[in-house]
Amino acid sequence: MSRSQNDDEPYARSSRRPPPRRPANRNQYQDDDDQDDQDDDEEEDHLASSRQRNRPQSGNRPTNRAGNRNRASASSRQSGSFLDKINQYIDQKQQGAVVEPSHIEPGKRLVALGIDVGAAYAISLVVSFIPMQTFLNNQFVIPLVLCFRDFFYGGRGLGKNLMGLRVVNMATGEGPTLQQVLVRNLIYLGPLLLLQVTERILHLFEIHVSLTTAVVTVKEVLKAVLSFYVLVIVPLEAYRSYAREDSMRLGDALAGTCLVEDEMNFSEILPK
User: Fold this and answer.
1) Which of 9, 31, 104, 157 might form a disulfide with 149, Cβ 3.0–4.6 angstroms?
2) Can you give the pLDDT at residue 41?
């Protein structure tokens, strides 16, 4: 019995695992971990540098995309700067204003415009009786009269005067200058005048048969472009004056003018 136990004792001793050796210094484990982390970092840096060397052409693609983004942002800044310049110009016109624009009933403005159009048409009929001239027809005289109408009667014109309205200079509170009147109205009437003047200039070249086709083509293209502009800008101006509380059109903002209610005054046709 004792023999069998002695025979099994070497096997029992061999199956026992030796206890782990404890380091003499407690920081040894930490040093080993730091060494492993350093080795891993060196390996990752080596792999990253090798991948960069193996792909020399792929680096151009992000650069190109970045260049495209830069060009797109530059173009957007240019368009934004143009709008910013317009807004800055408008702000300069309204600085130091002594007149506060108020809301004007759209009905009164529409009736005043109808009166001015009727007066312009009557003037065009009178001008058409002038002998030996073909330049001043209805299509040219009516827009021309409408461009200058606000300069008379101290900014009232005929239609606004009858409806108790007046265009004033926001900086002084007086009637608008001739330049302000033209800026205010040429924004939508200017293309019509430009079309009439261009047609008369191009008519001089139609005496050459070889240029007739080219002149007609230019006239038709110009007519289409300017007509499209008028059909777009006039509704926008009408909507702007209707929707805003101050009833200011874009022409008013650019000219530094506004429309106010005032009494009728036909005493002086032209300002002093």
Assistant:
1) 157
2) 60
Tens digits of residue pLDDT in 51-109: 555 554 444 444 444 455 555 455 555 556 767 777 787 777 777 788 888 899 999 99
CA distances from 79 to 65, 134, 136, 229, 251 (A): 21, 43, 40, 20, 21
Report yes or no on 166 lying in a domain. yes
Q: Is residue 140 part of a domain?
A: yes
| β-sheet bridge partners, residue 259 | 167
Between helices 138-148 and 178-203, what is the axis angle to 10°? Answer: 170
- H helices, E strands: number in the chain: 9, 2
pLDDT average, residue stretch 21-39 = 51
* Residue 149 belongs to domain spanning: 85-261
Say how many domains are in the chain: 1
Q: What is the pLDDT of residues 159-200, one digit of tens each?
A: 999 999 999 999 999 999 999 999 999 988 888 888 888 877
- 165 touches 264 (CB < 8 A): no
What gap in Å lies between CA 226 and CA 232, rounded to an integer? 10
Q: Considering the domain boundaries, does residue 206 fall inside one?
A: yes
DSSP state letters, 250-263:
HHHHHHTEEEEE--
Residue 189 lies in a domain: yes
pLDDT in tens, 115-134: 999 999 999 999 988 887 77
β-pair partners for 258:
168
DSSP assigned state of 16 = S
Q: What sign does the dihedral 254-255-259-260 (CA atoms) show?
A: positive
Share of the chain above pLDDT 90, in %: 29
Rounded Cα distance between 245 and 22, Å, is: 87
| Whole-angstrom distance, CA of residue 155 vs CA of residue 264 | 11
